[in-house]
Design goal:
Two copies of one chain form a homodimer.
Chain A (H helix, E strand, L loop, with lengths): L6 H4 L12 H15 L14 E4 L2 E11 L5 E2 L2 E2 H14 L3 E13 L4 H17 L4 E9 L7 E11 L15 E4 L5 H11 L15 H6 L7 E5 L5 H13 L2 E5 L7 H10 L13 E4 L4 H9 L8 E7 L6 E4 L5 E3 L13
Parallel strand pairs in A: 5-6, 10-13
Antiparallel strand pairs in A: 1-2, 2-7, 3-4, 5-7, 8-11, 8-12, 9-11, 10-12, 13-14
Amino acid sequence: MSSCPNPHEEHERVLLGHGAGGRLTAELLESLLLPAVGGFPAGPPEGPLEDAAPLPGRPELVMSTDGFVVHPLFFPGGDIGSLAVHGTVNDLAVMGARPLALSVALVIEEGLPLSELRSVAGSLGKAAREAEVPVVTGDTKVVGRGAADKIFITTTGIGTRIPGLAPSAARARPGDAVLLSGPIGLHGTAVLSTREGLGFEADIVSDSRPLHRLVEALAPVGARLHTLRDPTRGGLAATLNEIARDSGVAVEIDESALPVPGPVASACDLLGLDPLHVANEGCMVAFVAPSAAEAALAAMRSRAEGTGAVRIGEATAGPAGRVLMRTLVGARRVVDMPIGEQLPRIC
Amino acid sequence: MSSCPNPHEEHERVLLGHGAGGRLTAELLESLLLPAVGGFPAGPPEGPLEDAAPLPGRPELVMSTDGFVVHPLFFPGGDIGSLAVHGTVNDLAVMGARPLALSVALVIEEGLPLSELRSVAGSLGKAAREAEVPVVTGDTKVVGRGAADKIFITTTGIGTRIPGLAPSAARARPGDAVLLSGPIGLHGTAVLSTREGLGFEADIVSDSRPLHRLVEALAPVGARLHTLRDPTRGGLAATLNEIARDSGVAVEIDESALPVPGPVASACDLLGLDPLHVANEGCMVAFVAPSAAEAALAAMRSRAEGTGAVRIGEATAGPAGRVLMRTLVGARRVVDMPIGEQLPRIC
């Protein structure tokens, strides 16, 4: 009706970017889903629909759920089955919790070869055994051809908080050291390269793996461990922006300290992607009090999944919510929250 | 290669019937999913991938998960949002548990009108508030057009066992009275009639509703309440067959006692369906010791959702696993486990 785009009209339908973990996802949550679903008087302090939350009246137990729709199902370093275990185990882990039990709900497209289903289910079971978390319950639904794409998996996890640890995205403080447990960009570029046949599959393997033992190794840091997050959808940029916003701090990181593997950098260059926006499934960001930074780094490096742990920056007093990167040429640039989809169906 | 059908070849791909809650679902679970996923040494006694299970080391807490793929999204008496709450609340309730917390994971097709999403989310929130269970955490994924059908919802629930109740599908005993809390066949025929435009929509309304308060009303029956189940996918026939198998008893029911509403009977006649195979979302089967039958019936009838409660039969000593119906003309017929899909995407 008008040549001027109307932001309301643009948003009348769900967009791919609404599921990308960036600003559009946050808008959908805050403007539609939370008001519609929320309002229960006894909701937890974080409010509903966060990634993980304590159970009402049982703060030692946390609950997390995640749907997995990765395409293709199989990629270097994993598949949708192992990813569905690692993703939920890690959402519990960054709440400072050990996984206690998992549930698995499958939505399968009619016609999926049983061999693929067996492979995915076997990989899921193997990942659960390796993480030492039992799958206690499940559900299977089948929809007609064309009504889903092969298989979607929703895993829900219950975890037990590790005594003495209470990390929260709202507990980062000015002066905190910002630590990263390993290289970034591997998962997203591995999946994308496989999907598009870009030829990086030989050089890039997803980092998908469970991180709860890395968190246990940090237990001696105790209350000085302020914040843990795994930078999945939206990448490190989204995670740092969320922590800066929720804690009311600024964050400064050094480009020179960022562990971006060469093949990831090449793939991102080719595709016009920012490695800071690419999803990871096996690394973790920690904000720790400066007095604990060296001990935390040493603890992370003591485990295989943390051998590449580095300090990438620090939290500062403000402006609240701002994330800056000191670039290789000595400038500073703002690290924005990704807006919408960069890599759909990456997890 | 051969003119003789090879059962193995027939089953090389996932069929719609694998998700219908009948014999094919059981086969898929037992021959493929449980062996692939299972094997964790500390699994619960029921084994993995049951509908609901106690948490390891915390038997007072139970966990249940269910994916909802109902088509269409809106039907008389509910929609996918309210159904996703009721289904999981009821899976907890029939374990003798009060719902403590829910998680919600959405897989949305790109292009879904935001108005439909708002309506579904609002209905989900309303159902959760009415059931007095908080939605504590969630997840949202978006897939491209054609990669899903509008929206799928997976809800996972944690419940607290009601002291003194320990119903189990394996605890039915010969002599038990078999009680049914209300009419059967409403949900499945309401959804099917809406989907196909059959014109029964004015007369048939889904029975979708939460049953946990009905279970609480049964608390005084205590240990004499042996088994509770909600006959969803596969209908009353599947539920009675599962209980007979798991408890090693036979079950005999009276056709004359079965509450089948007139419009449901008409719809089933027209469509060639057996009301015993049609899904319900708001009624419950109870096996109780004969000495408690009258008290249990009275307790159920004291609540709105149980006003239509009736005794439909009894458990007998055997043959184990056999379900028989005494028909209106005085004959007996075997009530079989449904094999595959009768009504796909009914929940």
